[in-house]
Amino acid sequence: MNYKQLMAFDIPDIHQEYSVFDTIRYALSVGIGQDQLDPWQLQFANESNGPAVIPSFCTVLGHPGFWLGDPRTSVNATKLVHAAQEIKIENSIPSSGTVIGKTQIKDVVDKGSAKGALLYLEKKLLDKISGNLLATERRTIMLRGDGGYDGPSGVIPSAPPGPSGSPLASFTIQTRPEQALLYRLNGDPNPLHIDPDIAKAAGFEKPILHGLCTFGIACQAILQTILNSDLSKFGGMSARFSAPVFPGDTILIESWENGAFQATAIERDKIVLSNGFVTRK
Length: 281
What we know:
Layout (H helix, E strand, L loop, with lengths): L2 H5 L6 E5 L1 H10 L9 H4 L37 E10 L7 E14 L6 E11 L5 E11 L25 E6 L4 H5 L12 H6 L9 H14 L9 E8 L8 E6 L4 E6 L4 E11 L1
Antiparallel strand pairs: 1-3, 2-5, 2-7, 3-4, 4-5, 6-8, 7-10, 8-9, 9-10
């Protein structure tokens, strides 16, 4: 990896128009609607009532796509993984409209040639008409093939407070066998999530669920438990993708009074989201 070349890469701004049906599709793709008699869930799926917006929807709006695949970035795009995610809701996200996503590189941390490098990105999501800042999104990308580069290394941010004592609440959701096929319609066509041969070549027994789908599942779980189903209390959330989820896995999301949470794939007793933390307004 050429550090200067990567830092100089111009990530394009994304202007995206979306409808209430895009908003509903996202909600369904992260597990909303499994109980069709639940009024709280239906508010995200019924266009005649808004619909309400799952806060993690901001992760798929104004996304610049797979820009790291451009050879001009100089990174090894075949060995990168999404390592962590953070969102902060600044203003209510409309159920339809036009947004601008402005993504920039904030920092790179060199963990050595054997461990790779951490790339820190930040996206500002703006309402195109009003200019209001709707959300700030931060992603951490692990560049597994780019450690030991020639250039400066940044500082790894401190981890949020971890779980303390017994969980305040827990939420269990069964992911669907076709969930990755549905989630990819939000604009993530990575074949790792649909092609068995590519999944096996990447070291997985079968296609895996998108990390951001698991993040969205955790978001709706947090809303229904620790935030008492009150959307107005949601300030933001962050988590590290510690292991993949396979479509069909049962996910247990546990949350604590201090804002910490984690998600576990029950059948494999594997923590899939760690370092989780939610902030309240």
